[in-house]
Queue: 2 jobs
Job 1
Amino acid sequence: MTDLTIELREVSHAYRTAAGKLPVLDNLSIKVPKNSFCAVVGPSGCGKSTLTRLVSGLMIPDEGQVWLSNHQVTSPRPTVGMAFQNPVLLEWRTILQNVLLPMEIVKTKMTKDEQMARARHLLDLVGLTGFEDKRPSELSGGMRQRASLCRSLIHRPEVLILDEPFGALDAFTREDLWCTMHDLRAEEPFTCLLITHDLRESVFLADQVIVLSGRPAHAQHILNVDIPAPRTLDDLYTPKAVEMLATLRHEIQVAQGRSVAEPAAKPAAHARGPIPGAMG
Amino acid sequence: MSGTLRKVGVPILFIAIVLALWEWAVWVNDLPDYRMASPSDLVPKFWQFRELFLIYSWQTLWRTAAGLGLAVVVGTAIGMVMGFSRVAREGLYPLLVGFNAIPKATVVPIVALIFVGRHDFNTILIAFMISFFPIAVSVSIGLSTLEPEYRDILRSLGASNLTIFWKIALPKTLPEFFGALKVAVTLAFIGTNLMEIVSPHGRGLGALFDSGRISADYPLMFAVLLMLAILGIALFYVVVFLERIFAGWAERAPG
Ligand SMILES: Nc1ncnc2c1ncn2[C@@H]1O[C@H](COP(=O)(O)OP(=O)(O)OP(=O)(O)O)[C@@H](O)[C@H]1O
Ligand SMILES: [Mg+2]
């Protein structure tokens, strides 16, 4: 019990729309141990962003409970850091001021200088050095996404919730940032819930990958990723990883409601897997 | 350097062209003064009445500014109530629109009757009444259309509604607010002069206009109109200046 940081107990939730109730989550249970990394994949529109809003306390589930570090979530908590799928930055602030925004809300022991140094360090990690004093309108979509990632990390959150944080990035920057995430976790442990649509990303980053079913979503499959740390991109091309990717791909197809045969045999899995050595 | 030169030079050039066209049109059509005074007729008038112009301009200006200030305070307050509460929005909109649709020229005698003799107050009141509507509407729209994503950035950290208002809603609404304020500036001048002309009490440029009318001094009337335009431009650019400072971020580089 005590070593769980994020726990969802039989959570169900529906949106009330003009057309009636739209059930989105159905009896979803998730357990994320302290300082571990959980990735969630699932078909578009199945309720992944809804899940992040429930975990962060922005919404309260209709049924079931959400627990964060042994507190039942009834409202947002400052120990959470969140990067939204739509990375809005405040246009009237510079990038540096945007990253520092949470420090104006959250109580902290950091001095102003330490905050500033940390913000610059984070911006450096995601490759935004030199853009501290630019306005968000002067940045590309992917750069804004990276700045929003820094903002979610600035106050050293215990729980980090990332909703498709690397969606707008090119493959190379994305892989760089995967490694940055590993470095960060080694530096300062935190519990992470990552929403993604990139299966390789989920396997490379996570300790467990949860496949959500189609709407209303429940945990259709949980895959434990037992690749030891420190991981390198080459670990994605081991037979074990390729098999995991094949399993996930199969589960996603089931979640999408496509009729599929049992997991394809090994050679076929290879054929549909990433081309070995193409990247990384 | 060439940027500031262009910013100052181009408007001045355009004003000069318009004045020249005006002068030319009056001269070509050989219009008498009582039909249309020409700019060259106005200069001596400005000089002749220079003291009155100074005093009356100041009276018109400060009362307009006061009415506008009141409109900003009350308009923002109404806008905030309508922006945050749906019930208030639905309830207040028809009232506001109805009130705004009443021609203010008809309100002037009523106000003058209710508050007999309180000229400054009456004038400020009319300037306020005519100019608060765009401010209220823009603030309410700015607040009610604030994307939930913006709110969520701070809400997910446990920030209070007041903090969210100060750090997100208010700055985000400023560009709309200043847009409305630019409209309100010119409206407030109309309000002040309505009071000064329709219910004359010997103060402000409106009174000078009126005395020009009584003594059939047409160039003086035109000179007053020109003075009003100048004051309007001046106050407008004060708002533009404030906008630069507080909402300059909303201005995108051209291209
Ligand atoms: N505020 C809302 N009101 C009503 N319905 C909503 C609302 N937000 C989301 N939905 C619906 O709930 C479902 C799940 O939405 P959600 O954003 O959680 O999906 P998602 O899994 O994050 O999708 P994607 O992968 O495309 O981001 C969708 O069908 C969406 O239409
Ligand atoms: Mg989503």
Note: Chain B has ten helices and no strands.
Job 2
Amino acid sequence: MIQRTPFANALTYAIMVIGFLLLIGPFLVVIAGASQTMQQVNAVPFRFVPGDQFLANATAAWTRGDLGHAMINSLIMTLMITFGKVALSACTAFAIVFFRSPLKHLFFWTVFITLMLPLEVRVVPTYAVAADMFTPFRLLIQFFTGIELKIEWNLLNSYAGLTLPLIATATGTFLYRQFFMTLPDELAEAARMDGSGPVRFFFDMLLPLSRTNILALTTIMFVYGWNQYLWPLLMVTDPSYQTVMMKLRMLLPPEDGGTPDWNVTLAGSLLIMLPPVLVVAVLQRWFVRGLVSSEK
Amino acid sequence: MAQIDIRAVRKSYGKTQTLHGVDLIFPTGEFVVILGPSGCGKSTLLRMIAGLEEITAGEIAIGGTVVNKLEPRERGCAMVFQNYALYPHMSVADNIGYALKVSGVPKAERRRRVEETAAIVGLTDYLDRRPAALSGGQRQRVAMGRAMIREPKVFLFDEPLSNLDAKLRVSMRAEIRKLHQRLNATSVFVTHDQVEAMTLADRLVVMNKGRVEQVGQPLDIYHRPASTFVAAFIGSPAMNLIDSRVEGGAVRLGSAVIPLAPAFAGLEGRTVTVGIRPEQVRLAAPGTGLVAIADFVEELGAGRVVHAVMEGQPFAAAIGAEVRIAPGQPIAFDLPAEHLHLFDRETGRRIEIDGEPAQSRAAAATLAPALS
Ligand SMILES: Nc1ncnc2c1ncn2[C@@H]1O[C@H](COP(=O)(O)OP(=O)(O)OP(=O)(O)O)[C@@H](O)[C@H]1O
Ligand SMILES: [Mg+2]
């Protein structure tokens, strides 16, 4: 039912404006607060006018949270997740779409099920595995040889532990799969007639053709990886592996009874927000194209 | 070069069998056209030669080597696909040269050969374009160039012209034929268009429902179709096929009785199908020959085809543009005896004894009027 009366128009606009304010409101608070002095940010009522203290606040936040180190950690983790996922999903989708094997359906459903079990749902068992990688092998060796080995092997406090469980999920696989299935069979056949094997076909045809998909997935994964909080919290006990999301907590005003310096906290969170915003801004053109349509 | 031998080849998809034992020989350098209705297994056969489809049973040999287990690239075949299947992200030059790149030909030589090939197919000015920026005919040429550049022993075409408009199709047909003469490879061309088949083929293979109906030169097949299927499939408008029975050494078609040659005496009492092409039917004086009621008239410009009904069976005849015929009007047709075909009604196979035409020439010169 589409009505075009002045009243309906006004109503839809009102709803849109309210929605927009709800979304943008907190962001305005952050921007304004991050550039005010401690007195201004604690003033009641809150004033939405930015001040001139941003640099000072940002510097204070940077040292309080040791953000330099954490930024590098976050960047390493995010890039590993992003590229790991982009590469792994492309390979998985390639296998699922272009190869016929008796176990094809089994593989497909195994991959598919990971969609229903995001990390948050299976965080405890995943942690158990990551914390003691050797147990399954120990049991196997003991079962077959009777020898009991005691080897410590875990992924705690390592980049591998931070990233691997986040890479192995199916979201990206399905993005590629959807695109691969739109390619005509003849494309693969023509390449075969031209003498190209599967690997060559993957690199010469599929990867260049999925450029927009790759960029879209990169965007999604960068934001996803950067925003990880729960998993790093579990995996990292060594402060030198802490990520910026974990540092957010340390940016909270010290609870010493004094006036809380929210301006510093807000400036810190603005800094932490910056990298994903930049990535999205640079890649958003491709992002939309990659999700909406497939290039010819 | 390369002769293609197809021996007792079968193809099944799961339980359904698509090809039921095909035996064919395509001699070196011939242009073979495989013709048949949609779904008869033409593409399947072609793709089995190419190596894109597994051979369920039987054997295919190219140039004397059995290729059943060989990868497409090892068979020396090149293929042109119906939808061209160009690589969309590559320029025309890269499309044409891809096979050479894969086989590791140095860049300079690759470029020289791409330019040579592009000149042959008339694409020299388009080498830097992407396929999306080409017309249908140009894309078709790219596909042909891409197939040619490897100098294949065998050229396979799967309905390569069916996406082109009628005019372009005619000119591409001529080009493909010229190309074939120049390359001297064995070409196998799949189509369901009989005009394409008749004009291109050295040797025509007519297929139906996974079986080969007839193999031969196009004109041979046109003049002596081996079965009612081929008779009806080749020629436009389609051949008239009328069921009848051999009685008293003659067949009766409605009001016309056609005596058979003595050699056919053995057919007495058999049910047969009599065929005659619409363009070989003549108008006769009223009251003589075969009488049918006109149903509608099809204008073809150069002439027209009258569709009539004779004792419940359709009967078509090509007539000159000057004759006026109204629907419902009775028309008398003269069936020139030398153009009649005789088929077994049960098996649909052509009846021919010692190459002798079915009807006795002397007796058939006049058609006896109906007795009833
Ligand atoms: N992958 C497949 N699985 C199952 N059946 C198939 C498969 N490919 C083809 N067939 C069947 O095999 C038969 C022959 O197909 P084929 O593509 O060879 O026909 P065709 O003669 O080329 O027809 P067209 O003129 O429409 O291209 C068809 O009945 C089709 O349904
Ligand atoms: Mg086909």
Note: Chain A touches chain B through 18 residues (CB under 8 Å).
